[in-house]
Amino acid sequence: MESLPERRGPSLTWIRNPSEKLLVAKAEGWNGMVSIRLEIPEDAEQIRDLLRACFPGYAEADLVEALRRDGDIVLSLVAEEKDTVLGCIVFSRLTVTGDEATFPAVALAPLAVYAEYQQQGVATRLVREAHACLAAMDERLCIVLGEPTYYGRFGYSNRRASGFTSDYQSPYLLALSFGAAPWDGRLDYPPAFRLLDGDDAPLQADHRV
Ligand SMILES: CC(C)(COP(=O)(O)OP(=O)(O)OC[C@H]1O[C@@H](n2cnc3c(N)ncnc32)[C@H](O)[C@@H]1OP(=O)(O)O)[C@@H](O)C(=O)NCCC(=O)NCCS
Predict the structure, then answer these.
(1) Residue closest by Cα to atom 48 of ligand 1
(2) What tens digit of pLDDT does each residue of 35-84 get?
(3) Considering only CA atoms, which of 35, 32, 16 is closest in space to residue 129?
């Protein structure tokens, strides 16, 4: 039997099955109370509450709902404790348009953890678990507009992103690749990002983590 793509995260092993659906094969080696899992439809309201609490205004909460409605979410994970969502991370489809071809990449936004659960490594686990999952899905390029000192610890760099054309090109535009992926081209974000042009829009060139 053909072996399946498999990637290990901090506490889960992500396997892509032949129908392209993701399966979490193992959830061992983590004894803490906070678990990480794929978002399910019932999480939507708790995710909205989380994003309202972690960011000023409605922009991030509206963004995630619009991405979900448009079918542009590639991966969404939640951290939960006792059926309560306390953190989330969302990756949506972003296209790199070059002179001759387009390349499917993903945009990381948003990442959030309730204040009372911060500084305990929850976001770190969400990011690392998501990267393992994305690699198992054969995603190769992640883009984020964030704080280099924070995202740098996961391998994101402005150097990797500096060749892309984007309205958000700045020292805070960061990229991470898992494999062969373009170094230049235009970054086309999903339409949901264009709906958000207010002062509290999540993507601004001076945006921090
Ligand atoms: C950013 C955030 C997700 C981190 O969550 P967390 O679970 O506390 O993160 P971790 O425990 O894994 O990591 C904590 C580390 O992140 C660092 N960090 C947190 N916010 C930071 C920021 N804005 N800039 C730089 N570093 C930051 C902390 O200093 C800490 O560093 P240390 O490990 O050297 O002590 C959380 O603070 C949050 O939800 N903030 C509000 C929403 C937000 O800004 N999201 C990111 C933009 S989409």
Answers:
(1) 110
(2) 899 999 999 999 999 999 999 989 999 999 999 999 999 999 999 988 89
(3) 35
Point out the ligand 1 atom lying closest to the alpha carbon of residue 146.
47
Gap between the Cα atoms of 73 and 91, Å rounded: 6
- Say how many Å lie between the CA of residue 150 and the centre of ligand 1: 7
CA-to-CA distance for 152 and 124, rounded, in angstroms? 12
Q: Which atom of ligand 1 is nearest to the CA of 127?
A: 12
Is residue 67 within 8 A of residue 192, CB to CB? The reply is yes
Give the pLDDT of residue 209: 45
Contacts of 50 (CB under 8 A, 6+ apart): 85, 86, 87, 88, 112, 114
- The pTM of the full predicted model, rounded to 2 decimals, is 0.88
Which ligand 1 atom is the nearest neighbour of the CA of 207?
A: 47
Spans of the chain below 50 pLDDT: 1, 25, 29, 200, 205-209
